[in-house]
C-alpha cells in the first residue's frame, strides 16, 4: 500500500521550513501594517475619543476672554514682585526645616516621624542683612512666597512648602545683622495627617 503522506525525515524538514517562512512573511506583513497605522497617531489619540455632542473644554479652566493667553489661576503667586530692572542685590539666605521631636520619637519611635521634610512642622529662613536696621525691613508673607525689601536689598523667595501665612514670627538680631523668620508649615493631607 502506498502512503500518500510524508515518507522521510527530509520531507518533514522541508515542509517545516516551507511553513515557517510563510508564517514569518505573514508576521512581517502584520508588523508593516501596524507600523503604518501608528505613523498617523499622535498624543491626541491617547484615551477615549472626545464627545462630539457639545463643546468640550480641553483645559481645566475656562477663559473669560478669547484673547487671553492665561488665566489668573495659572500665574504663580509672588510673580507680581519680580522686577528685573531693580538693581538691589539679593541677600544671602538659608532655609531650614524644623521638627518638634521628643523622647517618645527619639528613643521609642512611637509617633511615626522620620527625618523627611514631610514630618516637619516649621520652616526657618535666616536672611543676612549687613548694614541694615530693623526699622528698614519690609516683610510680606504669602502662602508660598516671602517678599523682603530694604533700602539696600530685595528678596523674592518662592517657598519650598506651603505655609500658614497668618502664623509665624520674625526676629531681627542687631548684633549679627540677621533676620530669622519662623513659619508654620501646612501639614500635607495624607493618611497620617488627616485633619
UniProtKB/TrEMBL annotation:
GO cellular component: cytoplasm
InterPro entries: DNAAF6, PIH1D1/2/3_CS-like
GO function terms (MF aspect): dynein intermediate chain binding; protein-folding chaperone binding
GO biological process terms on file: axonemal dynein complex assembly; flagellated sperm motility
Domain PIH1D1/2/3 CS-like per the UniProt entry, residue ranges: 90-184
Signal sequence segment: none
Family from the record: Belongs to the PIH1 family.
Protein name in the entry: Dynein axonemal assembly factor 6
Amino acid at each position: 500500500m502506498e502512503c500518500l503522506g510524508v515518507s522521510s525525515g527530509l520531507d518533514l524538514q522541508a515542509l517545516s521550513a516551507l511553513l515557517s517562512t510563510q508564517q514569518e512573511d505573514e508576521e512581517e506583513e502584520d508588523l508593516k501594517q501596524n507600523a503604518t497605522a501608528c505613523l498617523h497617531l499622535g498624543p491626541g489619540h491617547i484615551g477615549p475619543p472626545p464627545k462630539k455632542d457639545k463643546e468640550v473644554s480641553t483645559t481645566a479652566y475656562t477663559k473669560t476672554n478669547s484673547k487671553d493667553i492665561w488665566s489668573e489661576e495659572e500665574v504663580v503667586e509672588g510673580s507680581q514682585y519680580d522686577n528685573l530692572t531693580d538693581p538691589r542685590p539679593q541677600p544671602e539666605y538659608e532655609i531650614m526645616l524644623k521638627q518638634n521631636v521628643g523622647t517618645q520619637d527619639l528613643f521609642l519611635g512611637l509617633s511615626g516621624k522620620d527625618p523627611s521634610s514631610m514630618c516637619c512642622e516649621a520652616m526657618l529662613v535666616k536672611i543676612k542683612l549687613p548694614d541694615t536696621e530693623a526699622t528698614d525691613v519690609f516683610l510680606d508673607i504669602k502662602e508660598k512666597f516671602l517678599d523682603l525689601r530694604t533700602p539696600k536689598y530685595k528678596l523674592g523667595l518662592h517657598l519650598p512648602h506651603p505655609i500658614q501665612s497668618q502664623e509665624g514670627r520674625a526676629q531681627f538680631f542687631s548684633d549679627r545683622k540677621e533676620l530669622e523668620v519662623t513659619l508654620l508649615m501646612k501639614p500635607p493631607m495624607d493618611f497620617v495627617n488627616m485633619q
